[in-house]
Design goal:
The structure is a single chain. The protein is of the alpha/beta class and 749 residues long. Helices cover 31% and strands 17% of the residues. It is built from 26 helices and 27 strands. The strands form five sheets. A ten-stranded mixed sheet has the order 1-21-20-22-23-19-24-25-26-27, with helices on both faces. Strands 4-5-6-7-8 form a five-stranded antiparallel sheet. Helix 8 packs antiparallel against helix 22, helix 19 packs across helix 20 and helix 22 runs parallel beside helix 24. The radius of gyration is 27 Å and the shape is globular. The termini are close together. The N terminus is likely disordered.
């Protein structure tokens, strides 16, 4: 068994893309657009109170009757092109009003809801001849009008960038806009940039640059422009697939009328308690669908499964179906692949509704509606992800009830969802009564179980509570977390488990959100390869992952991970490439496209964006020395490294994500056994880390040695062998260890 070093594979960059997805790296011919945004309009009158969130006729009529527009212009002013957009800076009054800045990051027809910058092209934003380079590239990160950002986060960023500012009403006013041309020290060229203190939306009245808080940070960290080559969609003009209308009706008819699908109907009615009337209202159907076989021996052959179908709606039309096998929830797909995002049950909600209940699953939404008669919908990815394409569909609701599962993943998902949707309009619903004890036999996990146990779902809704202030908590806030930690399932409380390294689970218990893990080991021992296998393992189980590889090119990293996924050397197995490329493309894995020396601020901006847009839960930084290389000399380089570690630690805690950080060790003898003090730099890294894992190179075998474990203190060693063809490591058994010690077995790395 030979160990293949990944550290030497450094290729000349072909582009400077900032962030890309797994699909663009494994198949260049595949479209990587994860998010489809509605067509954009721009309000000519920014302060118009009818600046609508949809492009309906009614909205245009409302705008036409708007007093502030009709009185001065007679007709509504909706801009459809770059030239008209340039008039915004002339039309807007000065100073900026709070309403104006709130409008900047609003609705589906906002200029900030077009293509996502890291995955798509860079459409231009019109401006006058003196507009900045930043203004010529349209900001596009959709942010809800209800989204709030702390004032402290804004001031911290401004202070870090040494921007002089003052508070003016509801906005921060910046002395010198970083996107404008030279002010020439003229007073009337200064104090033109405004940032709304609760939303982060910004607007410069001099250069017309504007956008969301995420856009502002990206532009500041990249010299006033979006990173070169950020568009990676190789099929920009491809038409988004929609399900055929006859197929949609066929699914519904098969469930209700075809005796071949009686088992599906019986399951829904008898085991889930959903009536036929409710199933019809939500358009639930049945079919025989093909899925990739999870059996490795089948080499990915398709398998047919009797399935349930759940239609996802956008603006009154079915845009996709969520398909799930009847008796095995592992088999689930969204059809057609690469289609638009929608919401299950949105067709049941009238246009004038101002309240809605969002549940984690389809059965829960139907249960709530069936018992209470209230409008209930569910999200397509459960508690794992809320695609930003869905946010415009929810803008019109003034009050949103979030009813997720009463388990660790569900409750963690609530935090992320409520922030995206706007904490001020969200209420949290529990599936158990307030006075219900921990040992009550009627405790349940979700709304569907509450229905089956004949609980009063209206009472549960009445007991809904506001989202807590993130800085003020009481015992009741984490009472459920303590209960789950004591009695919950290990995979939920202790984290996602490794499927290949059982001893890794015994020692570290799993990968948990909100933690920082430091990996170290000598050069050539395989840190990147092993971390690639671990992240692939966790990602295949649903942990949404962002890779930042500063030493190894992304395509080289992914080629190794594809071999690990297939368990074979794909270089000599060309016939299997498409199979594993397809599989890899389906993973919720994304890649930063930085390389070598990169400022921590740029990296954090990319991380923050990925957490917001893609709901990333695990971030890998490989490695710290390459990331900060050349940024300081002497003791300065230690201060820079310490600042980076402190920033990553803070980010893991604040954003509730797991950060895996690779740090090279100090220069020591190749035969030396590494310890905590071997990690390069000051003691900051190991002090801030929750876990420290060291790759050891022993005389007979190599191992992963856990030297720190803040979760429960368990430490230990995981000896492994390296399989050269598949690039996988395999844990050595006790019997194999005995053979090694007796000399009957010799490993070659």
């Amino acid at each position: 068994m030979m160990l293949a070093s990944t550290s030497s594979h450094l290729f000349k960059p072909t582009s400077q893309k900032f962030l890309t997805s797994s699909s663009s790296l494994c198949r260049l011919s595949a479209a990587v657009s994860k998010i489809r945004n509605p067509s954009s309009f721009t309000s000519h009158h920014l302060s118009c109170r009818y600046y609508s969130t949809t492009n309906s006729t009614a909205d245009k009529h409302s705008h036409q009757n708007c007093s502030c527009c009709a009185s001065s212009h007679g007709t509504p002013h909706l801009v459809h092109n770059q030239n008209d957009a340039s008039k915004l800076s002339k039309h807007a009054s000065f100073p900026a009003s709070s309403h104006q800045l709130r409008s900047l990051h609003t609705p589906a027809n906002s200029p900030y809801t077009a293509d996502i910058p890291f995955l798509r092209g860079k459409p231009g934003l019109g401006g006058s001849s003196n507009t900045s380079a930043a203004a010529s590239k349209k900001p596009s990160t959709f942010v809800s009008t209800h989204f709030k950002i702390s004032q402290g986060e804004i001031t911290k960023f401004l202070d870090q960038k040494e921007m002089e500012y003052k508070l003016s009403g509801q906005e921060f006013c910046i002395k010198e806009c970083p996107f404008c041309h030279d002010t020439k020290d003229k007073t009337d060229n200064m104090w033109k940039l405004y940032i709304h203190q609760s939303s982060g939306a910004f607007l410069c009245h001099r250069c017309s640059t504007k956008g969301s808080w995420f856009d502002f940070k990206i532009l500041v960290d990249n010299g006033g422009q979006y990173p070169e080559g950020m568009g990676t969609d190789f099929k920009k003009k491809a038409v988004v697939k929609l399900p055929k209308e006859e197929l949609c009706q066929q699914y519904e008819d098969q469930l209700m009328e075809n005796e071949n699908f009686q088992d599906v109907l019986d399951y829904l009615v008898n085991e889930r308690g959903i009536t036929k009337e409710t199933l019809k209202k939500y358009g639930v159907g049945a079919g025989v669908e093909q899925f990739r076989n999870f059996d490795d021996d089948s080499e990915g052959d398709y398998i047919e499964k009797l399935s349930m179908t759940f239609p996802l709606y956008e603006n009154g039309k079915i845009v996709r179906h969520k398909v799930r096998a009847l008796h095995d929830k592992r088999y689930m797909s969204l059809n057609p692949a690469g289609g638009k995002w929608g919401l299950f049950g949105l067709n049941t909600v009238p246009d004038d509704a101002t309240e809605v209940i969002i549940t984690e699953g389809e059965f829960d939404a139907m249960s709530v509606y069936q018992i209470t008669g209230r409008h209930a919908i569910s999200v397509p990815n459960g508690c794992n992800s809320l695609p930003i394409d869905i946010l415009p569909l929810l803008e019109r609701f003034e009050k949103i009830y979030l009813w997720f599962d009463d388990d660790v993943p569900g409750q963690q998902g609530l935090e992320q969802f409520s922030k995206k949707l706007g904490i001020g309009r969200c209420l949290i619903v529990k599936s158990n009564y307030v006075n219900e004890g921990a040992n009550d036999p009627n405790r349940c996990k979700d709304a569907n179980e509450a229905l089956l146990l004949q609980k009063d779902l209206n009472k549960l809704l009445d007991e809904a509570t506001r989202v807590r202030h993130e800085r003020i908590i009481t015992f009741d806030t984490f009472k459920g977390e303590i209960f789950n930690e004591f009695y919950g399932k290990s995979s939920e409380v202790q984290g996602i488990q490794s499927r290949y390294l059982p001893k890794y689970n015994e020692i570290l218990k799993g990968v948990r959100k909100g933690e920082l893990t430091v990996f170290t080991g000598p050069t050539g021992v395989g840190k990147t390869t092993i971390l690639g296998q671990l992240t692939l393992d966790f990602c295949e189980q649903g942990l949404r992952t962002l890779w930042g590889s500063f030493e190894v090119r992304n395509h080289r990293l992914v080629s190794s991970m594809m071999c690990q996924m297939g368990g074979r050397d794909l270089r000599v197995s060309k016939e299997h490439f498409d199979l594993y490329a397809d599989r890899f493309q389906q993973l919720p894995m994304y890649f930063m496209n930085f390389f070598g020396s990169t400022s921590v601020d740029q990296v954090i901006s990319a991380m923050d964006y990925a957490v917001y847009v893609f709901d990333v839960q695990h971030i890998v930084i490989d490695n710290l020395q390459f990331m900060v290389s050349g940024q300081g000399r002497g003791y300065d380089k230690f201060e820079i490294q310490d600042r980076a570690i402190e920033t990553f630690r803070h980010f893991a805690s604040e954003r509730n994500v797991h950060v895996s950080l690779v740090i090279h060790p100090r220069k020591e003898s190749d035969k030396a056994v590494l310890g905590i003090s071997s990690v390069f730099g000051t003691a900051k890294a190991t002090q801030e880390a929750d876990n420290v894992v060291i790759l050891q190179r022993g005389p007979m075998y190599r191992s992963l040695t856990v030297k720190k474990n803040r979760f429960d203190g368990t430490l230990g060693e995981i000896p492994y062998a390296f399989m050269r063809d598949s690039k996988r490591i395999m844990q050595l058994s006790d019997a194999e260890m005995e053979e090694l010690e007796s000399g009957r077995l010799v490993l070659e790395y």
